[in-house]
Task: inverse folding
């Protein structure tokens, strides 16, 4: 059997399989639902995943073995190339064996007519089934009537033109859908995790995350990502929980502490008792988001579908009216072969699909067509500061030396004392020392003391070094004159105080640097019609004001609590604005949910923020914000173009057909050519070249990295 089946994940009562074969989704789902104890089965063609809800006692391997017993029915295999070949064969046969002496229903016995009916069987089946079961006609019902009328009139070639053009339109639509699938799968394949599992004999073995189940013991080493939720049974470490909490400062954990999938061990090793697996992996989350996105249509797409449904009966009414007034079958055929349905419905769906696919290729996951439309209507953008406007990683902004000390001297001693620390602020100071190529004095590890909540006390080159907060310097009783200097600068945010041999040496000012390209992004948003760009942050007013001035934002709100962020978003919406909120942390989730479009951005985005948002940007490139707005506007412009082209061309063709100025075969060609044209117009969204990611220009050698006091 040509079926590839893999277990993506399993939880009690819920299993997701990766399944690739030649079946149709309905067939796969019906087979799995027939297994005793299975409640539901849903297959996604976008991700080739099968989500099954079942009795908790059923194991995924049982379902795999059951599905592998079946073979996909050959009769369901569909190929556009084969359908086109049938059409060409029918055309050749009709040219060689015209059988023009047959009249009335006997026309259906012509060799060319028989082959035309077979070649059109899928259109005829779909059009008939919809009419019988749903009690309303669709575009295929209209095409079926036109094909049958053409054959009864003795003109199989008109029927074949309809078939050729319809098949070509479907091929273009499927090509766009397949490209979207490929881009989505590219994202999904970026983060396949493995983990070290401890067996019963205590031996560590590297296995796939899919093999891990609750109750297993795993080991996570320094620098590795934790791949499951669980409780620490042995070891201690610093863990970067920014993917959960949004905080960039690592958390110290030890035995009995809980840890979560997606967090990273920055120092130390951990033995973890697994409690939850599967749904916490990045791949599973993205699969769920993609599948949810397929169910969400843009309002304009729903409007196109509804309009198309209403226009089908109108075409039949026009055909009836023309027959009653003219008794001309040619004119009646024109009313059946020329309609607005295909162009409006297919081109709108294709444009939305192409837009989502293009966004996925650039690293942005849009959760549904409705958000493509809303992105095009934005006039207000609200940005969270930490981790969104800024990098979420501290850097040294300034070194302010006190009397008798220099910047380089202060940094040499501080970097030596903090050289082996995994704290982000310590890393920022050590990194700057490396950039300056400083020769660090040697130190003895035994003479370095970490004072929890205060800082570091060390002996470096026979000098006593203090690096930490003001409380540390007060505790160690440094000389009073230096403390007055510190008091004058206490309003500085994230300041690290340094003392050498009991004397204040200076202050190192730490900042969370603004992302490269953020200023360019804001300018790009303004060019796309955004009237107001606002920043909301829980940080201090002075820090927020500096960022506001540097980026020239329209407004900012500082020292805002998480629940207040949602209130600000709601207030802007109530004022009549269409609002996009951009954030990354758990404290942004309520505001993201309230916004017209919620966007999470960056590698440190939290799970709950992803869940609450409508667009997920997987990279740290802020320029994608402007590109998503630009792409959505192009998509809506393309849809409007398609509406105009479809209505204009088909209206002219209908008038010409009603007056008998064109033959049915010409009418069919005009109608389907217009449909193919608007489909190609939609598909062009996928074909545009990618913009090269913009990078911050490197500093000139003469540029000073810090400001001296």
Result:
């Amino acid at each position: 059997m040509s079926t590839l089946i893999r277990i993506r994940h399993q939880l009690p009562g819920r299993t997701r399989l990766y399944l690739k074969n030649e079946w149709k989704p309905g067939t796969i789902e019906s087979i799995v639902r027939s297994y005793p104890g299975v409640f539901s089965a849903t297959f996604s063609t976008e991700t080739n995943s099968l989500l099954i809800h079942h009795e908790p006692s059923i194991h995924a391997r049982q379902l795999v073995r059951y599905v592998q017993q079946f073979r996909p029915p050959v009769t369901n295999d569909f190929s556009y190339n084969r359908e086109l070949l049938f059409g060409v064969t029918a055309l050749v046969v009709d040219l060689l064996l015209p059988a023009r002496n047959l009249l009335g229903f006997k026309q259906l016995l012509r060799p060319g007519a028989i082959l035309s009916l077979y070649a059109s069987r899928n259109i005829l089946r779909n059009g008939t089934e919809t009419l019988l079961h749903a009690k309303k006609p669709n575009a295929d019902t209209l095409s079926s009537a036109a094909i049958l009328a053409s054959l009864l009139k003795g003109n199989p070639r008109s029927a074949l033109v309809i078939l050729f053009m319809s098949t070509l339109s479907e091929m273009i639509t499927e090509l766009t859908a397949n490209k979207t699938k490929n881009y989505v799968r590219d994202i999904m394949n970026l983060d396949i995790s493995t983990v070290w599992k401890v067996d019963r004999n205590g031996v560590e073995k590297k296995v796939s995350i899919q093999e891990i189940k609750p109750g297993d013991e795993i080991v996570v080493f320094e620098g590795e990502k934790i791949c499951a939720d669980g409780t620490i049974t042995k070891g201690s470490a610093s863990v970067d929980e920014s993917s959960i909490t949004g905080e960039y400062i690592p958390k110290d954990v030890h035995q009995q502490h809980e840890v979560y999938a997606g967090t990273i061990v920055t120092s130390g090793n951990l033995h973890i008792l697994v409690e939850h697996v599967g749904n916490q992996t990045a791949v599973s989350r993205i699969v769920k988001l993609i599948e949810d996105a397929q169910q969400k249509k843009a309002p304009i797409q729903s409007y196109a579908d509804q309009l198309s449904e209403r226009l089908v009966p109108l075409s039949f009414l026009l055909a009836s009216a023309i027959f009653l007034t003219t008794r001309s079958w040619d004119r009646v055929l024109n009313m059946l072969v020329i309609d607005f349905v295909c162009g409006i419905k297919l081109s709108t769906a294709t444009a939305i699909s192409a837009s989502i696919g293009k966004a996925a290729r650039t690293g942005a996951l849009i959760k549904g067509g409705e958000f493509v439309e809303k992105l095009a209507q934005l006039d207000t953008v609200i940005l969270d500061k930490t981790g969104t406007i800024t990098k979420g990683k501290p850097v040294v902004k300034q070194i302010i030396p006190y009397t008798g000390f220099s910047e380089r001297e202060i940094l040499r001693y501080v970097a030596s004392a903090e050289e082996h620390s995994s704290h982000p602020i310590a890393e920022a100071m050590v990194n700057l020392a490396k950039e300056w190529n400083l020769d660090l004095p040697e130190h003895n590890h035994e003479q370095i003391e970490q004072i929890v909540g205060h800082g570091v006390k060390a002996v470096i080159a026979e000098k006593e070094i203090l690096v930490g907060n003001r409380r540390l310097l007060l505790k160690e009783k440094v000389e009073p004159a230096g403390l007055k200097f510190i008091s004058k600068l206490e309003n500085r945010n994230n300041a690290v105080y340094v003392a050498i041999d009991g004397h204040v040496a200076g202050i190192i000012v730490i900042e969370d640097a603004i992302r490269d390209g953020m200023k360019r992004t804001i300018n790009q948003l303004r060019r796309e019609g955004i009237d107001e760009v606002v920043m909301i942050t829980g940080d201090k007013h002075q820090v927020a004001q500096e960022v506001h001035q540097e980026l020239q934002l329209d407004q900012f709100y500082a020292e805002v609590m998480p629940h207040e962020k949602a209130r600000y978003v709601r207030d802007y919406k109530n004022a009549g604005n269409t609002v996009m909120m951009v954030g990354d942390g758990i404290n942004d989730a309520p505001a993201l949910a309230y916004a017209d479009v919620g966007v999470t951005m960056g590698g440190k985005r939290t799970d709950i923020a992803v869940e609450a948002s409508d667009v997920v940007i997987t990279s740290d490139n802020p320029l994608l914000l402007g590109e998503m707005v630009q792409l959505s506007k192009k998509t809506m412009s393309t849809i409007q173009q398609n509406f105009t082209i479809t209505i204009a061309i088909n209206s002219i063709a209908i008038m010409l057909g009603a007056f008998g100025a064109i033959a049915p075969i010409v009418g069919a060609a005009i109608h389907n050519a217009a449909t193919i044209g608007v489909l190609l117009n939609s598909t062009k969204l996928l074909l545009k070249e990618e913009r090269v990611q913009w990078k911050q220009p490197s500093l000139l050698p003469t540029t000073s990295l810090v400001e001296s006091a």
Observations:
- The first helix runs from residue 25 to 33.
